[in-house]
Amino acid sequence: MTGFPLRRAILAGVLASAAVVPMIAPMPAYAQFGGIVYDPTNYAQNVLTAARSLQQINNQIQQIQQAATSLTNEARNLTSLPFSSLQQLQQQVQRTQQLLSEAQRIAYDVQDIQQAFNGRYKGAALTGDHAQMVANANARWEDSVGAFQDALQVQAGVVGNIEGTRTTMDSLVSTSQSATGALQAAQAGNQLLALQSQQLADLTAAVAAQGRAQALQSARQAAEEAEGRERFRRFMGN
């Protein structure tokens, strides 16, 4: 009699366990370590979010670097050239102008030239008495001699400017080659153009001085021919 109640109790326990097992839900895919729940799905999502954030930060850093580089280039382009040849070029031009202003007897002036020609090279100046003809001939000779002397002085001044021009050119070329920005390069180019203008001014002055001397010499020869014809006319008339 004692075995029957024991078997019945075991059977009741098995049935109770079987009834409870179907009601247990499947466990999710996560683990617990020391009280911290590890969820692989959430972990992967967090890693992806962090990677995207890091990429955005890298993009922002690159944009900042590009902006800094652009500002640096703009600063270089706005940097002024540390060398200026304007003063030297102006001094050379002023020396040439001073030589031209020291023209003897007949200056580079329209009214002065007109007055000199009326008084010594044409008209009544060639038909006066003997003393007047001699005086005008001497004046014309002095005009020619002075003009050739002026031409030589101007040419000497232009030659003297060559050394200063060479020094200035060397400095400008060296500075332009080491230019750090567009503004410096442009300023160096402008100064080189100014140097060429100064050289053209010297060349113009030399040509003008030489042309003046030759023109006065030709005018002197023409006046002497006219004066000779007047003397011959008077001789034949007498």
TrEMBL record:
Signal peptide: 1-31
Entry coiled-coil feature ranges: 47-106
Keywords on record: Coiled coil, Signal
Keyword Signal in record: yes
Species lineage: Bacteria, Pseudomonadati, Pseudomonadota, Alphaproteobacteria, Sphingomonadales
InterPro entries: T4SS_TrbJ
Domain of life: Bacteria
Protein name stated in the entry: P-type conjugative transfer protein TrbJ
